[in-house]
Amino acid sequence: MIAKLENGNIQIFDYDAYKKQLDEDYERMKAENSVQDSVINAILKKKEDERLPEELLKIVLRHQLDEEYSKNVNAYKDWLPFKEEEFKGKLKENYYKRPKFREEDGYIIESYEEVVDVSAVRQKIKAKQNELSSTDYMIIKTYEAKITGSPEPYDNMTEVLNQRQTLRDEINTLQNLIDNI
Q: Are residues 174 and 123 in contact, defined by beta-carbon separation less than 8 angstroms?
């Protein structure tokens, strides 16, 4: 694989497959037009004044095929070999690997950086907010009972309040991930 890095944009190309196809097409075109090396060499061994017009056309056609082949082979000469660095470390929760590219020592190198997955974090925040909201009615009923002097409707309010605080702490932790980008 080869690559070209321009203005922060990367292009990656399978040059080996391209070159193989190019070589096959070049050889096929030479055979179809009867301008293989053996044919051209035989024509070139003749004295100029002994060459037939059809033979001269073959030389011209072969020259055109060679020029086109050379142009196509050299179309990627300013591209560099492509290498991918292995990601080192362990990807933390709520992060993903984002590729980044650099030119170094005659190569285009792809490495990775950890980046906060903002979309996933927002989804988690929303899910935790929904979970928090699911116990709102218990808080309201408990306050109503206190205001009216009625007995508390739930026995496990301390546990519910602890769960709600845990959810708020988790929401704040997740929100900080996004805020500190």
A: no
Distance, in Å, from the CA atom of 3 to the CA atom of 144, rounded to the nearest integer, reads 68
Report the amino acid identity of residue 90.
Answer: K
Give 180's DSSP letter.
T
Please report, as a single letter, which amino acid is at residue 14.
Answer: D
- Per-residue confidence in pLDDT tens, the chain, 181 aa: 999 988 878 999 999 999 999 999 999 999 998 999 998 888 888 888 888 888 889 899 999 999 999 999 999 999 999 999 888 878 888 999 998 899 889 999 999 989 999 999 999 999 999 999 999 999 999 999 999 999 999 999 999 999 999 999 999 999 999 998 7
Backbone φ and ψ for 180, nearest 5 degrees, come out as -95, 20
Whole-model pTM: value is 0.59
Under 8 Å between Cβ of 110 and 85? yes
